[in-house]
Amino acid sequence: MTAASLRHNVLRALYWGAVVALLLPLGLMALMSLKGGPIVGFPIDQVTVQWYAAAFTDREIAQAFLYSCAVAVASASLALLAGMWTSLAIAGLASPLLRAVSFCAACLPIVTPGIISAISLRMFIELVGLQPGFAAIALGHAAHAAPYVVVIVGLRLRAMPLYLTEAARGLGATEVRTFLHVTLPWLRPAIGAAAVLALLESFDDFLRSFFLGGYRPTLPVLIYGRLFSGLSPEIGAITTLVLLLTVAVGLCGERLLRRIRQDRAASWTD
Questions:
Q1: Is residue 53 part of a domain?
Q2: What's the total number of domains in the chain?
Q3: Would you say 61 and 232 are in contact if contact means Cβ atoms under 8 Å apart?
Q4: Under a CB-based contact definition with an 8 Å cutoff, are residues 266 and 206 in contact?
Q5: Which residues, listed in sequence order, are joined to residue 35 by a DSSP beta bridge?
Q6: Is position 144 within any domain?
Q7: What CATH number should be reported for the domain holding residue 209?
Q8: Which tops the pLDDT comparison, 38 or 106?
Q9: Closest C-alpha to 106, from 119, 93, 94, 115
Q10: Does the pLDDT of residue 77 top 90, yes or no?
């Protein structure tokens, strides 16, 4: 066996080991959601879907799910608005150094630890007099998701051929018309992908929802609260359903991101 093949086999083993380590807890969670008894653990004497039926008929879960969806839509809209205009402002800067510094500053919330971000956001809403609740959660989620929009939209902007906007301006189009009829259609796949990512980030965000929420919990906060009464198969059913929904939405976002990469590669070859 050559050194190259040995290295390839080692990397393959590490890859599959990482895959198993990541998927094993999820698989156990889904398996426990099918357990007939109320206690989580082996052996599984009876396979049932009663916990999924209980999750669908639980009014508190339904309300928390709809509340999380409403927060996700509101925060994603704010994140798209802030992130898209930030990307356009960064792209319009003349100095490469200034663009790099501005981009790093815009992406700072991504690398900030979640607990620090949640505490600082709670201090901010107290300072401005905003009460904990829907608006505070949406604002906090948007502040966290906007940098992802900056990255995705900025990637799309860098792949945009300059002759498109130059041709539009040469034909007499104004800045606003050029943006609406040239730049915005070019950014549409990136905006769609960023919207999906912002929705997922908001829906799954526990820390900021916990620190910024009021009396009405989002779905992650509700699941956390129910853990205090014990881990039951119903919680496994709820989280499995959320996981399936997240995977479905994430696949849509991946499809849009793949289109961005393909368009960028095509623009490079042109």
A1: no
A2: 1
A3: no
A4: no
A5: 47
A6: yes
A7: 1.10.3720.10
A8: 106
A9: 93
A10: yes
What is the per-residue pLDDT for 256?
66
Exposure b/e, 52-65, CB count within 10 A at least 16 = b: beebeeeeebeebb
Task: Answer whether residue 67 shows pLDDT above 50.
Answer: yes
Structural domain includes residue 16: no
User: Token pair for residue 31?
Assistant: 């398996």
Place of tokens 């994603």: 76
The 3-state secondary structure of the chain reads: CCHHHHHHHHHHHHHHHHHHHHHHHHHHHHHHCCECCCCCCCCCCCECCHHHHHHHHCHHHHHHHHHHHHHHHHHHHHHHHHHHHHHHHHHCCCCHHHHHHHHHHHCHHHHCCHHHHHHHHHHHHHHHCCCCCHHHHHHHHHHHHHHHHHHHHHHHHHCCCHHHHHHHHHCCCCHHHHHHHHHHHHHHHHHHHHHHHHHHHHHCCCHHHHHHCCCCCCHHHHHHHHHHHCCCHHHHHHHHHHHHHHHHHHHHHHHHHHHHHHHHHHHHHC
Q: Who's near 210: CB < 8 A, 6+ residues apart?
A: 118, 221, 224
Question: Which pLDDT does position 75 carry in this prediction?
Answer: 93
The two three-digit tokens of residue 107, written as one number: 């992406």
- Residue whose entry in the numeric block shows the structure tokens 């300072």: 127
- pTM score, whole prediction: 0.79
Cα–Cα distance measured from residue 202 to residue 269, given in angstroms and rounded to the nearest whole number: 37
Asked whether residue 131 is domain-assigned, the answer is yes
Q: Would you say 126 and 235 are in contact if contact means Cβ atoms under 8 Å apart?
A: no
Residue numbers of the domain that contains 181? 58-269
